[in-house]
Amino acid sequence: MSEALTERIKELEAEVDKLRSQLGERNGAGEDMELTPHSNEITDCKPDCTSSSKKKGKKGNKDRPLDFSVHPRRHVALRLAYMGWAYQGFAVQENTENTVEARLFEALLKTRLIQDRQSSNYHRCGRTDKGVSAFSQVISIDLRSTQFCGGVGVTLPENIDVSTKNKADISEFPYVKMLNRVLPQDIRILDWAPVAQDFSARFDCQSRTYRYYFPRGSLDVTLMADAAKRYEGTHDFRNLCKMDVGNGVLQFQRTILSASVKAAQPQQDANTDQYDLFIFEIKGLAFLYHQVRCMMALLLLIGQKLEAPEIIDQLLDVQNNPRKPQYSMAVDYPLILHDCHFDGLSWKQETEEVNHILAALQQHWTQTAVKTHILHGMIKALEAKGAAPSNHCWLVEGSRCKSYKPLLERPVCESLESRIEHFVKRGRLEREEGQNGGETIHRGKRSKHSHSGSILPETSS
Amino acid sequence: MSEALTERIKELEAEVDKLRSQLGERNGAGEDMELTPHSNEITDCKPDCTSSSKKKGKKGNKDRPLDFSVHPRRHVALRLAYMGWAYQGFAVQENTENTVEARLFEALLKTRLIQDRQSSNYHRCGRTDKGVSAFSQVISIDLRSTQFCGGVGVTLPENIDVSTKNKADISEFPYVKMLNRVLPQDIRILDWAPVAQDFSARFDCQSRTYRYYFPRGSLDVTLMADAAKRYEGTHDFRNLCKMDVGNGVLQFQRTILSASVKAAQPQQDANTDQYDLFIFEIKGLAFLYHQVRCMMALLLLIGQKLEAPEIIDQLLDVQNNPRKPQYSMAVDYPLILHDCHFDGLSWKQETEEVNHILAALQQHWTQTAVKTHILHGMIKALEAKGAAPSNHCWLVEGSRCKSYKPLLERPVCESLESRIEHFVKRGRLEREEGQNGGETIHRGKRSKHSHSGSILPETSS
């Protein structure tokens, strides 16, 4: 028995070694933004004048319980940036710890800025999926505060005689620095803002902006730019998303404020190099599940001249096209939630923190840029030897067929009505007759979130 | 006992899961060049018209022993490309299986193109270190052949009556395709060439070209380009390498045919964007251990204006500067062995193979280019918020000191003579008096490679 166990241990140890060396590059673990390479060579100077030594977190506080009830708490907004490539998405999931939110809450608990998630009054602006990054994800939450003198969003502790507390103008906790010390390197707090008690990152967001990066390849980017304009305005996007009826998403009208396709480096607009990068940038009030990736998928088909730009208008015409044709959405890693906009917030940036983040991003960029150019050099050399470039579009999931089938000739997915019926039968949704003979549908008794109330759109992509 | 083993297994399984999710992105494992993303979404077409299905290797031959003695064998050159970032170097090592050579020999054995390494008459053009890539690494080796009719480099089997064999013009084994099927995706055979029996990839190489990619940052690339020229010619490079005296490398004169610093994209020469990439390209007959990385380190110091270009001439002047100052070499991942040149070889390319490699490189490039641009977008946005870029040079190992110490004022490493003495004392080198009172030094009885004979330069970097 133990021989079999020993064998299994050897197997697993070999697997761990192999995976570690595949993570290989010195910055492998979790796309580490800040790791300085080890060196066995003599360095330029003595080891103790290292400028990027990891700062240690608070020591010795772990075991001493903290009485949160005697501290002020304040409602704040936190702005996060993260590289989503190593995570299973933003939102906490049952089957994995490897989400951005899980890491965020670990940090909030470790720094004792919150007591627990449930009581922290937490809202998030959007969910991003596995592989999707963010430069401006915003959350709102109650954090422990130093401000016995009160302030925007501050709640003083009950039953404490605050007059005995020093009310001099003491600084707030350096939230950004405290959290960045303990967060993984590929998740960073950019800044924070004091907010009123009733502020919600989810409901008070004025607009959300996504970017999708893609190489020109053999795409007609001018056609794509024209097509993108057709997304602007208020439309029913049920054919350009993954319907999430079971979770109570029943209406699919969304407003797109702007949609564009432009070169990443402005001077390259006039070029025709297939290795130039372009950005599909889209700004809207709120988005449906996988909406941006479906919109991008259509643009890629248009760019490959497999569909005409009119296909967008046709799929937005849900009267004539009530059911979504089967097509793959665009892959995840080029997508980034670039901005979540809130009016009237006073973001408090800690200059040193932001400089650290910039330095770390530059280091990471250096590695990926160098590798990108090495690969490009190999590609150019092979092309010089006569190799023929593939026209395959690498940004769409799944394989490529030799014969293309137009979207409107394809099998279609279930209609909205059919899906509603499915969940009504299972008790997850309930129909209710209104006074004037109309009908409303809301979450049923068997819904995961079985509370009545209006159905609000999920915001994610 | 088995409870402890079971615990260990659980630990290891958790570690494997964690590492796998860190490798996260669908193309994580070993920088996979050819993996098509999985999709749970409906794809554009039926699953069975996939165009990039993995081809299966020979089935059922594994257990049937092959009698190599009845087959012709031929001496060939194979040209390899590999992404070195996930490997512990090219050369086989005692403490790890994770080398390019180990994978190569696994493939040669699996395809039964060789019987074993020892009898395969194997030479390699150069060794590349951990993290270093290659576009044109060349090896020479004896492979099994179909050519009973003989040919360049072909040895017919002894004791076989070849007259009974079909001597019609049958094709040679498709070496490239056979090996690429079983090699990991980040190691590819580009082509092969028939060579004479006495050809050696190591000794017959006319020149080797390396490239080192780096971002402009705040470097003075014009100064670096001027400085690079000083490397050209024949010089003693003992101060610009890691001396490998223990392995018998005793003379450090090497010839550099050309050395240049140029923009990766030619039109960017006139720009000043710190995010433009440049290439240090260097062509020489043979190189010492870590030579290119030391040369690059000096150029980086010159580019940062911490040293004058004359430092190169001074360090090449071993009369006046016989001992190497302590300095770090440049990091590994930007370095690639770009070309190994051999006169008069007739490289046999298999068009389909080369197209596959190009497609795979394009797919990989797409991922790294997209990530690079996402990071660049974040950097630009942070700079717009007022973050100050760091001047740290990310390409040198070790930390950066606030106060720079000029090379010629630093502590120096051991001299060549002192190192020789060290190994002579230990029996790994032996001094021998020549007839005219001169002295030669050769590998001693205790050397790892204890055979007498002239000491030839190791070629690696």
Q: Biggest interface pair, residues each?
A: A-B, 116 and 116 residues
Biggest sheet descriptor of chain A: 10 strands, mixed
Mean pLDDT of chain A: 84
What is the rounded distance between the termini of chain A?
A: 48 Å
What class, by secondary structure content of chain A?
alpha+beta
**Low-pLDDT segments of chain A:** 24-60, 450-461
What proportion strand of chain A?
15-25%
Helix content of chain A: 10-25%
Tally of helical segments of chain A = 8
The global form of chain A is globular
How many strand segments of chain A? 12
The helix/strand series of chain A, from N terminus to C terminus, equals HEHEEEHEEHEEEHHEHHEE
- Give the quaternary arrangement of the chains: homodimer
What gyration radius of chain A follows from the Cα positions, in whole Å?
Answer: 26 Å
Top keywords for this entry?
alpha+beta; 8 helices; 461 residues; globular; two-stranded antiparallel sheet; 12 strands
Task: Please specify the SSE layout and strand pairing.
2 copies of one chain form a homodimer.
Chain A lengths: L1 H22 L49 E10 L17 H11 L12 E2 L8 E12 L9 E2 L19 H8 L4 E8 L12 E9 L5 H9 L3 E4 L16 E11 L13 E8 L6 H13 L6 H7 L18 E7 L9 H34 L31 H10 L3 E5 L5 E5 L18
Parallel strand pairs in A: 3-10
Antiparallel strand pairs in A: 1-3, 1-4, 1-5, 2-3, 6-9, 6-10, 7-8, 8-9, 11-12
Helix pairs in contact in A: 4-5
Structure notes:
The first copy, chain A, has helices at 2-23, 100-110, 175-182, 221-229, 291-303, 310-316, 351-384, 416-425, and strands at 73-82, 123-124, 133-144, 154-155, 187-194, 207-215, 233-236, 253-263, 277-284, 335-341, 429-433, 439-443. In chain A, strand 11 (429-433) and strand 12 (439-443) form a beta hairpin. The model of chain A is unreliable at 24-60 and 450-461 (pLDDT under 50). In chain A, helix 4 crosses helix 5 (291-303). Helix content of chain A is 25%, strand content 18%. In chain A, strands 1, 2, 3, 4, 5, 6, 7, 8, 9 and 10 form a 10-stranded mixed β-sheet that branches. Chain A contains 8 helices and 12 strands. Chain A starts with a helix and ends in an 18-residue tail after the last strand. Chain A is globular. The first copy, chain A, has 461 residues and is an alpha+beta fold. Chains A and B meet through helix 1, strand 6 and helix 7 of A and helix 1, strand 6 and helix 7 of B.
